[in-house]
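User: Modeling request: complex.
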Amino acid sequence: MATAELSLHQEFQEYTLRSPFRASWQKVMMWVFIVVDALTFGSLLVSYGFTRVSLGEWANPAEVFALHIGGKEIPLLLIAIMTFILVSSSGTMALAVANAYERKKKETVLFLTLTMLLGLTFVGCQVYEWTHLITHGTRPWWNPYGPPQFGAYFFTLTGFHGLHVLSGVIYLAIVARMVANGTLDRRGSYQLVEIAGLYWHFVDLIWVFIFTMFYLF
Amino acid sequence: MAEGTHVPIRKYLTVWFWLFILSALAYFIDVVHVPSPWKAILLVMVALMKAGMIMAVFMHLGYERLSLIYAVVAPLIFLVVMTIAFLPEGTAVLGSHAIAAP
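Assistant: Request completed. Predicted assembly structure:
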């Protein structure tokens, strides 16, 4: 079993040397997925921009997403916290990849777990936000803040992104398990961690644009 | 042959630090109510800077072969094309509403 997996890894390495991209096919395929997904998110954001421009009016996100703390309204506080959490998770993911290069098993699993926890916290904040808006009457076809399209784009954009975060947590859990139980040691390559990192950083990248285009504009 | 693409850990920490700074800056731009065209320009600039840093360092695109960089970045031009094509179209639709219902 071990030798079979090792020879498989050698095959991958030979492929990398022959590849015009000097990258393993796993990494190239992840990049293909990321480009396609980026275009999907891009289309959603352009469609949102078109709708918002063509309506001429929109809800004020600074008011809709304000948090009441001690009788004061702080605009977009939850969104700022969520951004902070996601940027933090990108940092811990980068540290997981850096430790994977050096094949430090314990540290890699630790930072992957931290990344997963931050990802789950992010999704938790999103659940809170959705619950808040839904209990105030927001639906994909109606909302109390502005044109009905506001609700539709809110659920589509944040829902699609949140689903990516959740899938990312599951993906990282599988990779962390493979690091912990020695599968990657037997394969002789930790590149899987780096490739999972590509996906995680991409999810953060998408949030940069949703944060800017949907919440700040 | 190298395992993957090695990026020095210092570089990661620098980018991480700047991502925090830029996120705070974007939030600040929104809170202080920068006048209309400048707000959009500043926010897009900050977002593109963050995106560039994440792609170049966190996703190590800056350390990959040029062929891979082109293969990834070239299709994203379509996003710029779509933005330029559709957003002015939105203004046209808004204008036609105004004519239909005066």
